[in-house]
Design brief:
Blueprint lengths: L4 H25 L2 H18 L8 H25 L11 E2 L7 H4 L4 H7 L4 H12 L4 H8 L3 H18 L7 H16 L3 H7 E10 L13 E2 L1 H13 L6 E8 L2 E8 L2 E10 L6 E7 L2 H4 L7
Parallel strand pairs: 2-7
Antiparallel strand pairs: 1-4, 2-3, 4-5, 5-6, 6-7
Length: 300
Amino acid sequence: MPEGTTDDTATRVFAGHRELLFSVVYNMLGSVADTEDVLQDTWLAWASRSGGGGIENPRAYLVRIAVNTALSRQAAISRRRETYVGPWLPEPLVSDGEEGDTAERTEAVSMALLVVMETLTPLERAVFVLHEVFGYAHTEIAPILDRSPSAVRQLAHRAREHVHARRPRYQADPKVQREATERFLKAALGGDMESLLDILAPEVTLWTDGGGKGRGKAALRPIEGRDKVARVIVATTARHSPKALDIRYRTVNGDPSAVLFDEDAPFAVMVLDLAPDGDRVRGVYAVTNPDKLAHIDEEG
């Protein structure tokens, strides 16, 4: 065998599964930086063990290594988030929605669902991601987690009941969500209280993730209720110059959303969650922490 062939094959096989691994791990952790670290560890494990061959199912092997590496990092991630300033939101995955986006990457679940998934145990979340998002059977998940199929079914049942009780199955029409986002931003940046009250659902919740670093004042906890949310939004825009912001409509975690730029630098990512019975907004997710926006460029 020519020198380098084994290494080249290992690299090619890993590269062929990288997008799947990224999506699985990202949906477990909600952090691009942590996901990249897990993928690096997965690559090192793969490169050291695959040189001699003998791995019958590389995809299953890589997913198992990635999932368990992600689970082993959960304790450290949880400790870090305990000291996080204000609400923690997943790091947004931004794309321009072009067909070139890979299928696995665009399967990242919505911001709203990721927030709900934060309340699951790490094992429940891993099972939910593998079963509900990627369609793995319980019998396929069992060896990945080194659990029996019956234990996996119990984890899956608890996770599904927990998630669906907080977020019933619903997928807004992309056109409706884009139009709602445009109307919301026009009212928000224009300080139009009356229009905001008309757009927001009575039970709306506003999440602002600045991590103590974002420009402008971010709420230290989620704000609930239409009147409170509208007042906070109008007060916030009154303190800044919305005319300086450039709105770019992008796909964020699979949903039509908006990225606001200030002098060609990302200022905020805005994601709306719509109520199932219409086009009113029941969730507003604003990520302004510059650390979570650093990977976003003007091209999306």
